[in-house]
Amino acid sequence: MINIRKLESELWESADLLRAGSKLTSNQYCMPVLGLIFLRYAYSRFKIVEAEILKNRPSRGDRIMPVEASDFAAKSALFLPKEAQYDYLVNLPSDIASAGLKNRDGHTMNSLGEVVNNAMQLVEEQSEQLTGVLPKDYTVFNDELLAELLRIFNNSALDDVGGDIIGHIYEYFLNKFAKNIASDDGVFFTPKSLVKMIVNIIEPTTGVLLDPACGSGGMFIQSGDFVNAAGMNANSAMTFYGQEKVEYNAQLCLMNMAVHGLTGVIKSGDEANTFYNDAHNLNGECDYVMANPPFNVDKVKAESCENAGRLPFGMLSVNKSKEVGNANYLWISYFYSYLNERGRAGFVMASSATDSQGKDKDIRESLIKTGNVDVMISVANNFFYTKSLPCTLWFFDKAKDEAIKDKVLFIDARNYYTVVDRTLNEWSEWQLKNVNAIVWLYRGETEKYTALLEEYRIALESDKPFSEQVHELSEKAKALRAEAKKALEAAKEAEAEAKRKKEKYEGRKPKELRAEYDEKLAELTEILKIAKEANWLYEKFGDGGYTDVLGLCKIADVSEIEAKGWSLTPGAYVGVAPIEDDGVDFEERMAEIHCELLSLQAESNDLMDTISANMKEMGL
After folding, report:
1. Does residue 422 lie in a domain region?
2. Into how many domains does the chain fold?
3. What span, in angstroms and rounded, lies between the C-alpha atoms of 33 and 174?
4. Residues 471 and 389 in one domain
5. CA torsion 179→180→186→191, rounded to 10°?
6. Burial of 78 (0-12, 13-18, 19+ CB in 10 A)
7. pLDDT in tens, 565-584
8. What pLDDT is attached to residue 460?
């Protein structure tokens, strides 16, 4: 089986190495590279659909009727003319000028960049949604660099695992580019785990979905995946609308949707400035609203906002310049206003908005009194690629069950996450499920909770209590580390002895042994992570049934919220959990770290010796 994460990493490293060797900035490089991945994905889908069409294709004599664009349209797939097919581009001669190739307008093309630009134009002609969207500036690349990029994304592994995986590769690259070129302080790219949390709690099924600050379209992609996973067709069940002021980001959104097989209506430019325009005339019409809007925006023209409407709780405070000094509650008001009588909304917002004062507080009070505030989740620092500040996820539901109509579920997840690296945190798939499970229990949907417990049991292939599995797996991991340490030490000693005697070492190399044990340990660690998450959930909620958990979650009614000054800050309600013993022996762990450092130092010394010997051989 292909290791997708390894493949993603290898492709990124190869492509980024080429960028480093060119004179292009990340901004110049991003869109063309994503365009090539889009083209590769489109070709992969083209070949799959073409094979389906040809299965029952009529023939005349011995000749099968050629496929046409209309055949692909009938299967909701993109038709690619020959000159836009990836294998055609990859197999072009190195000297384009001498090949006599003509573009769609009949002009001779003299560089590979011109040929790829022509391919993008041909693709745009096949889809109204893509018109004017695909990058067509490939002449900034020299032919050698562009040919190498085409080769990188023609990796046969992508064919082995299927076209959908190229969608994952696309998202991975979009993620990586976000760290380098994110505009507006990273607003346009919302990390996948935050998007998934919003979609999981909103649970879109059918109807109109609006993202009025859609950026690169992550909300649409995850919603499409959610609907498709439920056995429906996202394009048939959902209608996607987006607004994005920045043209560049809107292009990314349309490409992102196309690469995942989704269609939607995305408006951009001044008409898509959500502060002043309801570009799709969707006020009061949406089944779902999802967004990650820019936080704490100032200098918003108050009169224009008031004229635009969508302010069910009144206008915000206005300064002497007739401007809104902080637009957070404009967004909150708009999101609520867009919903129809049964609509749900989920969005990311600055943490400060949960208890801001002045007119914000008045609007928040009115909002809470509607009974439509559903769930509030506090998120830790470092979930964004270019921000370190914490945020809060807000959820509205105009069709709440009567049993919870005057209640709000508060979840403080600031201490619940997975560390990716020093500057980035995320929720793992199982952590997303666990937080979602708390919401299910609050809503009385115990059957979903029970199904999750069963999912854990299947993943762990055991009927033992989760806590026992955590202990057993931890002990196995310790034993495996000890076994690996002994084997590595024995191999190093044998290798050193062979070197002293100037004999050939016939045993297994320490590096081989380390790789083998690292792989075993990684598998065991992954299972251990699942067991720990299963235990985290089960020890709090057992076989099912909501209960407030100190430091994690609490259901509060309107009277309790009023007593807290209409605050919607989860930490004000859930309290502080007692400090738990994490089971880590501090002295033992420090000893392990010391051994790891010594091992790294030894490897460093070996490397320096090798470099020194090589330099002597070269006479340096």
Report:
1. no
2. 4
3. 10
4. no
5. -20
6. buried
7. 999 999 999 998 776 555 55
8. 92
